[in-house]
Design brief:
The chain has about 700 residues and is an alpha+beta fold. About 45% of the residues lie in helices and about 15% in strands. The chain has 19 helices and 19 strands. Strands 1-4-6-5-7-9-8 form a 7-stranded mixed β-sheet, sandwiched between helices. The chain has a 4-stranded antiparallel β-sheet with strand order 12-13-15-14, with no helix packed on it. Strands 2-3 form a two-stranded antiparallel sheet. Helix 3 links the parallel strand 5 and strand 6. It starts with a helix and ends in a 7-residue tail after the last strand.
C-alpha cells in the first residue's frame, strides 16, 4: 500500500507546479486522477458498493474575510467528485476533501498532493470492503484551493451532492511531512471529536491549536472555512505542520515526505472515515450538534477528550480547591492579616519580574533588528533559545535574587512556600479567566494548578522537615512531570508552526520581537513553579554567571554576523521568499485616456530583511529603487495576487522592458454608470472590474483585476 501511495504521489508531482488554469493542473493531473479512479471503480464492480464519478467545472464568486477581506471570482475551475455508497443508495454523505493544485513555484508534494494520494488509496480500501457502508462518502479532489479556496466553494454551493453532505474531513498542509495534526473541528458537533478519539490509530490533536488558529493569529486559511461558512456543515481539519520552511517552495518534493508520515496519515484517515460512515450520528448530525469538546493528546499516544461543560465543572472545582488551600493559610491564627499582605507583596514582585524580563528581552530583540541581524535564528533555531532564553532566565533570576537579598534579607522555607503559593494563585487566575470566557484551552492552567497543588500537599511534611532537599526536589519534579511534559510539547508545536511563518509574515512585523516574546513567555510559564527554589537556594551567583556568559557569547556572535538566516543545504534548506513579477502597467482616466504607463520588475520581500541580503549579490536591486504606496491608486497601483499590502509595504520596482504576453487580453468598454455610492461601475469585455469605495473628497477610480462582469 505504501508503495502505491508513493507512486501516486510521484506521478502527481512529476508534472511540476500545478497552478489553477495550467495544463499541468487542468489536464495532466485531472487525467491521472480519473484514470486511477476508473481502476478503483473496475476493481470494486462486483462488491457491495457503487462508485460514481463527476467532473465539475463551476463558475462563481464569493466574499471572504481573509487577509483584510476581498471578493474572489472563479471561472470553470476543476473538481473531481467521487461518490462511494452502497448499491442501494445513501441519503447521507460524508465528504473527504483534498486539493491537487499547487502554488506556481512548487511541486506541492505535501501541499497537497500527498493528501490526494492518500485519498485515492482510502477510496480503494473502502470501495473493496465486503460489508456495505451505512452511509455514502464523497471524495472531492479539488483543483483550485491555492488561489483562495475557490473549487471547494464551487462544490458546496453548486453541486447537487452537496445537499446530502452532513460532515467533512479536510486534508491540508502547513509544512512538509511529519504528523498530521487536528487543528480545527466543529463548529460545535462534539461527536466528530469523539469519532477521531475512538478511531484514530496515531492521534495528534489539541484544542489549543484550534483556538489559536481560529483567533486569526496565523495568516492562513483552508477549505474548512468554506464548508463551515457556505455549507453550514461541521468537520475536522487536519494538516502536516513540520518543516514549514519548505511550505510553498520548490523544496516541497515527494522525496522529503517520509514513508512513516504517509503511513500514519493513511491509517488515521481510513480509520476515522470508516468510523464516521458507519456511525448513527451522521444520519442525524443536528441532534448531536450542540456542545464543544476539550481534547488534547499525550505525546501522540492517547487523546483525552471530554465535553466542555464537564471541563467547566472540573476547572471551577480545581479553582475552588486552590482558594480553599489559600484560605486555610490566611485563616491560620499565626497568619491572620500577615499572610495576605505577604502574598500580595510577593505577587507584585513576580508580576514586576515578568514585566521587566519581557521588556529587557524585547529591547535586546530591537537592538538585534536595528543592527541588521534580524532572523539570525532562522537557520539555527537553537541560537534564539540560547540568547533570548538565557536573557529571560537570567533577568528573572536576578530580580528574585535581589528581592531575596535586599527586601527579605534571608533564605528560608517560608519564602519558598510563599512563592509557590504565588505561582498557584496566578495560574488559578488564568484558569478562572479562560473558563469564564468559555475557552476550552483552560485545561492547560487546570493541569498546571491541579498537579502542583496535589504534589505540594503530598510533600508538605517532607518540605517542612528538610526544605529543598534532594529527595524533595526529585519527588516534586516527578509530581509536575505530566503537566510540564505536555506543556513543553505544546510549546514545541508553537515554535514548529510560528518560526517558519515568521519567514513569510511580511516586511512590517519585526520577527525577532515576536520570537523573543514567545521565548520569554515560554520561559516565564515553565519557570513559574520553580521560582521558589531561588528563595530556598543559598546562592544564585554561579547560575547568574553561567547565564550571563551564554548570553554575552551569543550576542557577540549574532552582532558579528556569524549566523546567516538562509541556506540552500539540500538536507535542510531555509529559503528566502521573494515575490517577483515582470509587469507592464497602464493607467487610464475616467475619460479613457492613458494617464501613465511603465514596465518593470515588481519585487516584494516576504520577510523583514527586505533586500538586505540580496543587494550584495544583485547590486541593481537596492534601496534607490524602493517605491512607496501610491494612495490614490487601488492597492497602491500594483497587481497584487492577494491583497496583502498591509503586510508587505516595502516594495522595489526595477525598470525593465515591456511585457509581451503570448495571448494578450484586449479590454473593450461596454458600459459606464454612476452608482448611488459615489463610485463608477464600468463593464468590460472581456470583463472584470472592481469598484472601490471612495474616501471623502476622493475622485472615483476603477481597478481592473480579472474577468468578472459587474
Amino acid at each position: 500500500v505504501i508503495w502505491i501511495l508513493q507512486k501516486h504521489l510521484e506521478r502527481i508531482t512529476s508534472v511540476g507546479p500545478r497552478p489553477t488554469g495550467s495544463p499541468e493542473n487542468e489536464i495532466l493531473t485531472v487525467n491521472f486522477l480519473l484514470e486511477q479512479i476508473e481502476h478503483i471503480k473496475a476493481d470494486s464492480a462486483s462488491g457491495p458498493h457503487s462508485v460514481t464519478v463527476d467532473v465539475q467545472r463551476p463558475t462563481g464568486s464569493f466574499s471572504i474575510d481573509f487577509l483584510g477581506g476581498f471578493t474572489s471570482y472563479y471561472d470553470r475551475v476543476s473538481n473531481i467528485a467521487v461518490r462511494l455508497e452502497p448499491k442501494a443508495g445513501a441519503q447521507h454523505l460524508m465528504l473527504a476533501n483534498c486539493h491537487f493544485d499547487s502554488v506556481a513555484n512548487s511541486p506541492g508534494a505535501s501541499d497537497d498532493a500527498v493528501s490526494c494520494a492518500v485519498m485515492l488509496e482510502v477510496l480503494h480500501s473502502l470501495a473493496n470492503l465486503s460489508t456495505p457502508l451505512r452511509h455514502g462518502v464523497v471524495f472531492l479532489f479539488n483543483g483550485a484551493e491555492e488561489n483562495v479556496l475557490q473549487a471547494s466553494h464551487g462544490f458546496i454551493t453548486q453541486h447537487p451532492w452537496a445537499k446530502q453532505v452532513r460532515a467533512f474531513i479536510n486534508l491540508e498542509a502547513a509544512g512538509v511531512g511529519g504528523k498530521e495534526v487536528v487543528f480545527q473541528t466543529g463548529p460545535e458537533n462534539p461527536w466528530l471529536v469523539q469519532a477521531y478519539v475512538h478511531a484514530a490509530k496515531h492521534p495528534f490533536a489539541s484544542v489549543v491549536g484550534q483556538e489559536v488558529f481560529q483567533s486569526g493569529v496565523i495568516p492562513s486559511d483552508t477549505d474548512f472555512r468554506i464548508y463551515r461558512d457556505f455549507g453550514n456543515i461541521p468537520g475536522i481539519d487536519l494538516a502536516f505542520i513540520e518543516n514549514g520552511f519548505l511550505y510553498h517552495t520548490k523544496y516541497d518534493t515527494s522525496d522529503r515526505i517520509l514513508t512513516d508520515s504517509i503511513q500514519r496519515a493513511g491509517d488515521n484517515i481510513l480509520a476515522v472515515l470508516k468510523h464516521l460512515v458507519m456511525s448513527e450520528e451522521l444520519a442525524d448530525s443536528s441532534e448531536y450538534r450542540h456542545g464543544n469538546m476539550v481534547f488534547f493528546d499525550l505525546l501522540g499516544m492517547v487523546v483525552v477528550a471530554y465535553p466542555a461543560r464537564v471541563g467547566t465543572i472540573i476547572n471551577y472545582m480545581t479553582a475552588m480547591a486552590t482558594f480553599l488551600y489559600l484560605f486555610k493559610k490566611c485563616s491560620h491564627p499565626s497568619n491572620v492579616g500577615r499572610y495576605i499582605k505577604e502574598l500580595a507583596y510577593a505577587t507584585a514582585v513576580v508580576i514586576l519580574s515578568w514585566l521587566v524580563t519581557l521588556l529587557t528581552v524585547l529591547i535586546i530583540a530591537l537592538v538585534v533588528s536595528l543592527t541588521g541581524r534580524s532572523m539570525f535564528w532562522y537557520n539555527d533555531f537553537y541560537t534564539c533559545i540560547f540568547m533570548y532564553g538565557s536573557a529571560a532566565t537570567g533577568t528573572m533570576v536576578l530580580i528574585h535574587t535581589l528581592a531575596k537579598n535586599l527586601y527579605y534579607g534571608v533564605s528560608c522555607v517560608c519564602l519558598g512556600e510563599l512563592y509557590f503559593d504565588v505561582s498557584l494563585l496566578l495560574w488559578c487566575a488564568a484558569l478562572v479567566y479562560l473558563t469564564a470566557n468559555d475557552l476550552c484551552s483552560a485545561y492547560v492552567p487546570m493541569l498546571m494548578v491541579a498537579f502542583p497543588l496535589t504534589t505540594k500537599l503530598l510533600l508538605a511534611r517532607e518540605f517542612k522537615l528538610r526544605g529543598a532537599s534532594v529527595k524533595y526536589s526529585v519527588l516534586y519534579q516527578l509530581g509536575l512531570a505530566l503537566p510540564y511534559v505536555h506543556f513543553m510539547f505544546l510549546i514545541w508545536v508553537v515554535f514548529e508552526i510560528f518560526t517558519p511563518i515568521l519567514g513569510r509574515s511580511g516586511t512590517e512585523i519585526p520577527p525577532d520581537v515576536v520570537l523573543a516574546t514567545l521565548v520569554t513567555l515560554a520561559t516565564l510559564f515553565l519557570s513559574s513553579f520553580f521560582l521558589h527554589f531561588i528563595y530556598l537556594a543559598r546562592s544564585t551567583k554561579w547560575l547568574l554567571a553561567g547565564l550571563g556568559t551564554v548570553f554575552t557569547v551569543f550576542l557577540v556572535l549574532v552582532l558579528c554576523g556569524m549566523f546567516f538566516p538562509y541556506t540552500a543545504d539540500p538536507s535542510s534548506p531555509r529559503p528566502k521568499r521573494v515575490f517577483l513579477q515582470h509587469t507592464t502597467r497602464t493607467f487610464h482616466g475616467l475619460d479613457g485616456q492613458v494617464k501613465s504607463r511603465d514596465s518593470g520588475l515588481w519585487i516584494n520581500s516576504f520577510d523583514y530583511t527586505g533586500m538586505q541580503h540580496i543587494t550584495p549579490i544583485i547590486p541593481e536591486i537596492n534601496d534607490t529603487i524602493r517605491t512607496s504606496c501610491q494612495e490614490d491608486r487601488p492597492f497602491c497601483g500594483y497587481p497584487w495576487f492577494l491583497p496583502v499590502k498591509f503586510l508587505v509595504k516595502k516594495n522595489w520596482y526595477l525598470p525593465a522592458p515591456e511585457v509581451f504576453p503570448k495571448s494578450p487580453i484586449e479590454f473593450q468598454v461596454l458600459s459606464k454608470e454612476q452608482t448611488k455610492w459615489g463610485t463608477v461601475k464600468i463593464t468590460f469585455e472581456p470583463p472584470i472590474v472592481q469598484v472601490l469605495p471612495l474616501k471623502k473628497d476622493e475622485r472615483p477610480v476603477i481597478f481592473i483585476i480579472g474577468t468578472l462582469q459587474l
